[in-house]
Amino acid sequence: MKFTDATTEEINAVMEKSWDAFLAYRKLPLQRRWEFMYAMANELDNIATPLVEIASQETNLPKDRLESERKRTVFQLKSYADACKRGDWLDIRIDTAIPDKTPPKPDIRKMMVPLGPVVVFGASNFPFAYSTAGGDTACAFAAGCPVIVKAHPAHAETSEMVANAIFAAAKKTHMPDGIFAHIHGEGFETGKTLVLHPRTKAVGFTGSFAGGKALFDVANQRKEPIPVFSEMGSVNPVFLLPEKLKQSAEQTAKMYAASITASVGQFCTNPGILIGIKGEALDRFLKSLSDEIKNIAPATMLHPGIAKAFVEKRQKALAQNGVHVAAVSSQQPQENQGLPTIATVSADEFLKNVLLHQEVFGPYSILVICENDQQMMEVALHLEGQLTSTIIATENDVQQHEPLIEAIKNICGRFIMNGVPTGVEVCLSMNHGGPYPATTDSRFTSVGADGIKRFVRPISFQNWPDSLLPDELKNDNPLGLWRTVNDSLSREAI
Amino acid sequence: MKFTDATTEEINAVMEKSWDAFLAYRKLPLQRRWEFMYAMANELDNIATPLVEIASQETNLPKDRLESERKRTVFQLKSYADACKRGDWLDIRIDTAIPDKTPPKPDIRKMMVPLGPVVVFGASNFPFAYSTAGGDTACAFAAGCPVIVKAHPAHAETSEMVANAIFAAAKKTHMPDGIFAHIHGEGFETGKTLVLHPRTKAVGFTGSFAGGKALFDVANQRKEPIPVFSEMGSVNPVFLLPEKLKQSAEQTAKMYAASITASVGQFCTNPGILIGIKGEALDRFLKSLSDEIKNIAPATMLHPGIAKAFVEKRQKALAQNGVHVAAVSSQQPQENQGLPTIATVSADEFLKNVLLHQEVFGPYSILVICENDQQMMEVALHLEGQLTSTIIATENDVQQHEPLIEAIKNICGRFIMNGVPTGVEVCLSMNHGGPYPATTDSRFTSVGADGIKRFVRPISFQNWPDSLLPDELKNDNPLGLWRTVNDSLSREAI
């Protein structure tokens, strides 16, 4: 099946329709948004088998992995729909009038309202959870924004199928025409045209640094700049602290061999850099990790382009000064397969060579060997912004390395202790974000219902009579929302 | 008194010191931030008389106006300090572990942490409340960020005096060295150097569109782009709806004559455009407004540059096709005084000429005369983003003009009914922000304690033992904060 690129005229028509849908959708009660999102979830359940079949053909991902991602996507839609209705994200603030103040203080009530049509660019590596009906789309719908998805060309047919499920859900729940649109386009131009369109009010992107940064730049060059949340991946450093490593070198190695190679290393939270201090414990860790990696078979990557990029980036990294291969899978890779690889380098060389700080998207990780604590601190201070950082540490390790812990905290969006960064739980406490270049705005997350906040803005109503206020702000609190009233949180009526 | 521009070397030294201060300050408990901010407020009380004296000399603003702005600044510091300690802005989310889930769900806890050193550019028109110890500075300190203020050259001595008060407060409360810095510089280069410095992590700005947009562009061209919140003013349209205008033409005119000329029109919420439908009620309104304006004396503007710009922009606006002067003050303006002026134009001409949509900073407003409801709607649809919009309307007017009300809502950050936009209450429900070009990011406010959120980002702690977590996230909730625990808001221990 082949899809034609959308023309500028088609995009113009789509965006005007989105705008009209925005005017209608933003006025619908939260309950209606909830119904629409649950209907989407149901539609995705209805087409489970053919959907996973097609996705598996397009992405080379195993069906059980895809089915669990599909379930996650369904859960995500329902969970954000619940959060939408719970309404905490509305950040309602009410200050009642004080007429006898000088000058009199008016009644002011603030809540979040949607920004407008949101353009979403899905990820190649998560055809469901971070794509057409994925987190960005769910957040935008919860916020009250129509969505225009630019289908990822690597799984365009999967995307089309999911889009049809969304259209079906929209129809069943009587959503305004144009609440969702699905656009195909092979190159950058289609995306650029969408981001430049004056009716577009925000952008969600998951993918490469090059793609995410380019869209960010385009958005900032508009006459009216708009917010872009690009999640652009990272190397997710793992710091192996001495006491814990001594206690659990082999156990940690096993855990990481699995994490580095899960889904052929194609996770944006893949641990691409391991940092340890030379010595007996690190030798045991490396030996154990190497033994594990040798036994992990190469597997087919998402598409030939990604496999080719992996081969090139891996080769380039391995060709750098002082980089050595510690272990590769004992099996030869077939065409488009990613070869599990562990490399090593001294911290001295690592600190001198920023190329080694960059992501090699695939089943690859490099162990940076430090001379001592101080050099580990230097490495932490030289790393750029990350989605996650991890420490393998005892409580004592943490207490003994306070400045290091602070330095690591400062560069990451999620800080894991004695675990692996792969596996991004869908829950309100999740932060899937982080300092640049992990994302274009560290103040937001793209996973968890707080991701809704990317697509809303506050508005204050001053001196409005109760009868004309939105239900969310009315005195008797008909929706039973949590609201900050005169500086105190409450669900009571006023 | 004359101040020398900071050199690049001096700025480098200041920023390194700010960074060191950041590492120490962000670890201090909220109580310590509260103490520091209250000490700042006290210092500003201690120097009240000489401070208002100097500010009056530098800005030409009357002393009673300045004293009330000073008091507002003191209130603002205390109120944001209280909000800092109350901690709602930390957006704490806790999801406890579910070990028997497949795969096991780890314990994850999220809170806000400071971004790093914040560069603040104060406003010419509010030497206290939006300047050196103003809202941006208070928000940044509450967030846990050091502040570097670029003094406004129009009130550099006032700024220096306030800076010394901040230094004194920092010393008395044992704040880390470098928590605050004060930089002088006449031109754009000093500001640019500050924004480009790699240690700078966010920017707060209040002032002109040209200045705010230029800093936004500089920040986005950095290797590591950083968030800039520029509040750039607006024309704050006022829509006069028919039923209410008929009832209260004269009363509304009086209220607006005062609002348009308050502080010589030098408010970013000054109502620069009034929109009405032609007829007997609008004639009465215009006559009454004109009578009032004639009786309001010209007054000296903030500085000669602003007075000159007012003369030029006013002249240019009045020279446009179809623009007529309806009334000016009956008194001749002296040098550097702003002449209160009301102009009129037909909606036809207004819609054709975007120059008329732009701010004339000073005591000037233009009445746009529409043929009918539909043309008023057209005007609403043609306006850019605004800090505020106002309707003068009965409940019946609102119900009869639903699409118009929606269109107005869509372009503003604060929506006032039967009031004036001037007067920005310092409270949590305030939104002093709005769609571009009113600000560079409509998702934030610069007034009210929610302004803290501009300078923080979330971080998730995954799988950390209770003893190593920050107090904010510990099981027993020692700070008594509101937290969302497993999707429910609570102040209980876990």
TrEMBL record, chains A, B:
Domain of life of the organism encoding this protein: Bacteria
Organism, scientific name: Pinibacter aurantiacus
Residues annotated as domain Aldehyde dehydrogenase: 2-426
Record-linked Pfam families: Aldedh
GO MF annotation terms: oxidoreductase activity, acting on the aldehyde or oxo group of donors, NAD or NADP as acceptor
Name used for this protein in its record: Aldehyde dehydrogenase (NADP(+))
Sorted UniProt keywords: Oxidoreductase
InterPro entries from the UniProt entry: Aldehyde_DH_dom (IPR015590), Aldehyde_DH_Superfamily (IPR050740), ALDH_KGSADH (IPR044151)
